Each structure stands twice: as C-alpha cells, then as structure tokens.
From TrEMBL:
Protein name: Serine/threonine-protein kinase receptor
Family, per entry: Belongs to the protein kinase superfamily. TKL Ser/Thr protein kinase family. TGFB receptor subfamily.
Gene3D superfamilies named among the record's database cross-references: CD59, Phosphorylase Kinase, domain 1, Transferase(Phosphotransferase) domain 1
Pfam hit, one: Pkinase
One Gene Ontology CC term in the entry: activin receptor complex
Reactions performed catalytically: L-threonyl-[receptor-protein] + ATP = O-phospho-L-threonyl-[receptor-protein] + ADP + H(+)
Keywords on record: ATP-binding, Disulfide bond, Kinase, Magnesium, Manganese, Membrane, Metal-binding, Nucleotide-binding, Receptor, Serine/threonine-protein kinase, Signal, Transferase, Transmembrane, Transmembrane helix
Length: 618
C-alpha cells in the first residue's frame, strides 16, 4: 500500500500508521469527481499518501501538499482540489508561512497552507506546503498575493503559477515614482518653452503647422499672429458656407483680418484650401490674399482656421443685393474675375527660384466666392473643392458632381464629365457666365433702372433648387438666365452679353477661356480711354447708379481691328446686332440672342487685337 503514491487511506487510520521521510501525507479532495453522480470517490475525508520514491526505486523529488479553492459570495470558501504536489518549488517551502505561525503550531507540524501568490485565473486561490496534512487548514494572507508572469507546469489538472518575491513589487513602486517625476519635469520644461516662445510677434516658419499659433506665409508687413499670448479675436460672422463660417477678426496688432473656421469633419476641405494657397506662384492681385492657417481647440472641439485679407464690401453676391454698379465698375469687376480665373487656370513655368505653378480648377465658382475690395478689385476665394492638375498626373478618382447646384454646368448635372484638365476648366467658365450675368443685371446704363437682384434661374427654380430641378432647366430644356433686349442696344454691353453666352455654351468645347474675357474687356477699356472715347466718364458715379451715353460705338472703332488682318483668308464677315462687321473665327449656325440654349455666334477678336492691346494697355 505504501509503495503506491496515489493510494488513499481513511482519515481515521492515519493516527496509527507510521511513516518515514520518504512519504508525505496530504488531505485529498476532488470537486469534479464528487459532482459526478456515478462516482463519489473524493467526496469523503481521505488522505493521499505521496511517495518520493517510484516503483523502480528512483527519487522523484520533493512531495508537497496543495489546495485550490475559490471564494464564493453564497457559499464562502469553495474547495476545488486538494492533494499531492511533486517537484522542487521554493514557493512550497513554507518559509513565509512559518514566520506567521505560532511556535506551538510549528512544533506539532500543524502548519496551514498559506497562499504566497495568486493564479492567473483571478477567481481561484492556490497554496502549497510541506508537512503532515498541511493543506487541511487554509489561511488567507492578502499582503502576500502577488501576480506571477511565468506559470508553473500544470499537474493533476491544477492551474498554478510561480512565486514572485516582494522585491518585484518594490521595483514596480520605484519605477512608477520615477515615471511620474519624469512627466512632471517634462511638463515644466514645456511650460517654460511655451511662455518664452508663445508671444506675438515671432518669425514665421513656412512649413510648420502649429497647434496654437497661426502661421503667416506671405511677404506682407502684417506680423505673425500669436495665439496664446495675443490671440486672434473673432468678431461677427460674415458668411456661412458648406464647409465653414467666415468671421471678421482682429489680430494682436488690432488689424482686421478674415478667418474661415472649419470643423473637424471638414478638415479635408481646410487641407485642400491651405494647399492651394501654398502653391508656388499662387499669389495674385485677383486671388484672395492668404495670411496663414491655424488649429484651435482640442478633441471634438478642434477647429481649423484659414486666415486671409479682410474685404469690407463682402462678396459680390452680398454687394449686388443692395447696390448697383456703374459701367466702369462693371468693367473693372469683370476684368478682375477674368484675370483671377486665368491665373488660377494657368500653368506657370518655374522662374526666379520658384517652382512651377500647376493649373487649378475652382469647381465651386459663384458670386458668393468673389470678394470685392474698396476699389472694386475682384478677388476669387474659397478653394475647398479645388482640383490641382500636377504635370504628368491624372485626375484620379475626383468626384465630378461637386459645387453649388445652381451653378453646375450641363455636363456636371448629367454626369457626363470627361475627367481631363480642360473639362474641369470649362466647368468653371460656365459658372463664370452666370456670375457675369448677375453683374450685368445690376449695372445701370442708358438711364434704364435695374431690376431687383436675383440669382441665376431664381425665377425658374426658386431659392433652393434640387439636382433634378437644375437637370430639367439646364440640361434638358437648355435654358439660360434671361437676356434683356435693352442690353443689346448698348454697343459695349452687347459685347459683354456675347461673352456671357460664350461662357455658358451648352457644349463645353465651345466655351471661351478666362483669357478671352480679359481680351474683350481690354478692348472695351481701350475705347473708353481713347481721345475719341465712346463714353463720357464724367457722369459715372456709384451714387446715381447709372451711366450716360454720349456717343455710340461706330464701325470705325471695330474696323481698326479688321484692317490689319487683310491677309487672313476664308474668314466670313457678318453684321451683328451687337457689334457691326466683326471678324468671325468661329461661327455657330444658331444665331439666337435671347439667352436660350441656342448658342449665339462666337465673336472672336482676331489675332491682331493682341497687338493693339499691347500698345494701348491702361
């Protein structure tokens, strides 16, 4: 019986048995066996005899007793296993247990099984010990419950862990104390740096993206705007757009600037606009002046700012709602729009240590995105949907149907865009035609009063058209905003009307470029400023809102352009109700001037016009 290390002896027989040192007596219990209905072994009180010598006489190592239990709210201490534990183990030496036992307990070898560590299964408790029936009594010692990172091998289905010393816990404490001290030190250093460098002004850096201080990138005299010590103060809101709100603001030197505030979900539009403004050779007199960008706030309240020049007149849309324009103002605004779009669309080669500027399509051109300076200088703004055409690259997966529905070209509404640079630039030109129509509709001339301001197609589709509304009006019915007959009776205005119709042509390929708009406006300005000027400017005033005509534009003014072009063959001369005897480089078969979808003749100034303009620039 004693040669079998797994043999069980009733508890009552233990007192009369004599055992030598090669055997260990442990209390045995198996909850799993006890719960099986057909096997009640292990439910009663029994002792397991654990031998350190196997059947061949070999020493198997030390033998110990163990216990595994869990603390239950309902049942208290709930035993799981008790029995023999084999193998050398420092954690079972009871050195820590002996220190807390009474001398009487140690003398009678009635040492409890004291847990020195916690198993990885945190609802279980484990202990092992060496001594006669030492696992009979379980003593909880919370101060010694440490977690082990290295599990011991499983034996007899029992989950165990290795013992860790108290030194490990002390090292943890030291580590965390040092970590906290390091964090406090770094925070102090950071506070000092912010205090020293967070003042306004400081030298701007062209590549840094600050989290607190705005970054000015232009070469103006406006200094950098420090956010921490001298923040930008937002005043009243000027406009609300698809991607943000524009505020009038005051910088740390009490200068007025405009701040466009983007929310977190519109960060991509902020990034696009910032990148467009930062393109090489992007700065232009008719592009809104970019002053810097900023990030403000934290977490879900994080905002992204674009800081630009402030224009007190606001957008062209807002200005036309309450003002009319004179003939001179009309020409200046149209010229500014043409120059701004031409610069935006143009590819400019590298020069003067500056990289090349790629072509850019605006993709949301409208009167709300044209700002007016005090001198009626038009500036194009809002590049949140812009598309940059870098050399030797394609448009990729650029979404075609973007922008404001009212200003969408027919091909955009129909989803029939060719994803090429020229196609996107022609879309801008269609929208430009609508903006020019808004301008002309508020220009007073020939003592004819202006109508109230209205948006393009407002009479047809109202204030908030749907895509379907615009598809029906523009793409299917091929309508355009109404052209008044009185506009065509004004010779100079007639050329502008033709320019408008050339911009909003149903066929994208037939639309003129922004450069052509500039050429035609230059032609009108030349005639204004010649000694035999067509117009008397003495009566032009923004207060009386009308222009007085003194002398009609005659054939001689236009024939000057034609006489230098006698060598051009096979070109047709026709009489136009807009301008007589204009050379036609392109002729459209449908000569309809009421603004409907039938496109009027394309009146293109011949190449010799450029020579005249070069000699008469004003």
């Amino acid at each position: 019986m004693l040669n079998n290390p797994r043999e069980f002896v009733p508890l009552a027989e233990i007192q009369s048995e004599q055992f030598d040192d090669q055997y260990v007596k442990c209390l045995y219990y198996n909850r799993t066996l006890c719960q099986q209905t057909n096997n009640k072994e292990g439910c009663g009180e029994s002792v397991q005899i654990c031998s350190t010598i196997d059947n061949l006489g070999h020493n198997t190592g030390d033998a110990y007793c163990y216990a595994l239990w869990r603390n239950s709210t309902n049942e208290g201490v709930q035993l799981v296993f008790k029995g023999c534990w084999y193998g050398a183990s420092k954690s079972c030496s009871n050195e820590e247990s002996l220190s807390v036992l009474s001398q009487q307990q140690q003398q009678h070898h009635k040492m409890p099984c004291v847990p020195a560590h916690q198993p990885k299964q945190k609802d279980l408790n484990f202990c092992c010990c060496k001594g006669i029936l030492c696992n009979e009594e379980i003593k909880q010692m919370p101060n010694l419950l440490l977690y082990s990172s290295t599990p011991a091998p499983e034996q007899h289905g029992v989950i165990t862990t290795t013992m860790e010393s108290n030194d490990y816990r002390l090292s943890d404490i030291i580590f965390y104390v040092l970590l906290i001290m390091a964090i406090i030190f770094l925070a102090s250093v950071a506070s000092i740096i912010v205090y020293i460098f967070g003042k306004c002004p400081r030298k701007p850096h062209s590549d840094d993206v600050p989290t607190h201080e705005p970054l000015l990138l232009d070469g103006t005299n406006l200094p950098n705007i420090g956010y921490n010590a001298n923040p930008i103060s937002l005043k009243e809101a000027l406009a609300n757009g698809k991607f943000g709100t524009v505020y009038r603001a005051v910088d740390c030197h009490n200068r007025q600037v405009a701040v466009k505030v983007f929310s977190m979900q519109d960060r991509s539009s902020w990034q696009i606009e910032k990148d467009v403004y930062n393109l090489p050779q992007m700065e232009h007199n008719n592009i809104l002046k970019f002053l810097g960008f900023d990030r403000n706030g934290e977490g879900i309240k994080l905002e992204f700012w674009i800081i630009t020049e402030y224009h007190p007149n606001g957008s062209l849309h807002e200005y036309l709602k309450s003002h009319t324009v004179t003939w001179n103002q009309l020409l200046k605004i149209i010229q500014g729009i043409g120059l701004g779009l031409a610069h935006l669309h143009e590819e400019i080669p590298a020069k003067d240590n500056q990289n090349a500027k790629p072509s850019v399509a605006h993709r949301d051109f409208k009167s709300k995105n044209v700002l007016l300076g005090n001198d009626f200088r038009a500036c194009i703004a809002d590049f949140g949907l812009a598309l940059v055409f870098y050399p030797n690259t394609t448009c990729g997966d650029a979404h075609g149907q973007v922008g404001t529905r009212r200003y969408m070209a027919p091909e955009v509404l129909e989803g029939a865009i060719n994803f090429t640079r020229d196609s996107f630039l022609k879309i801008d030109m269609y929208a430009c035609g609508l903006v020019l129509w808004e301008l002309v509709s508020r220009c007073s001339f020939n003592e004819i009063p202006c109508d109230e301001y209205s948006l393009p197609f407002e009479n047809e589709v109202g204030q908030n058209p749907t895509i379907e509304d615009m598809q029906d009006i523009v793409a299917q019915q091929k309508k355009r905003p109404h052209i008044k007959e009185s506009w065509s009776k004004h010779p100079g205005m007639a050329l502008i009307v033709t320019t408008i119709q050339d911009c909003w042509d149903q066929e994208a390929e037939a639309r003129i470029s922004a450069e052509t708009i500039c050429e035609r406006i230059n032609t009108l300005k030349i005639n204004n400023n010649n000694n035999d000027s067509t117009f008397n400017q003495s009566n032009l005033s923004s207060n009386n809102h009308r222009t007085t005509m003194t002398t009609p534009l005659t054939n001689n003014h236009v024939n000057t352009f034609i006489n230098n072009n006698n060598n051009i063959n096979n070109q047709k001369i026709v009489n136009s109700p807009f301008l007589p005897n204009i050379h036609l480089n392109h002729y459209h078969p449908h000569l309809n001037h009421n603004g409907s979808a039938s496109t009027p003749m394309r009146m293109m100034i011949s190449s010799h016009t450029n020579n005249i303009m070069n000699n008469h620039q004003t």
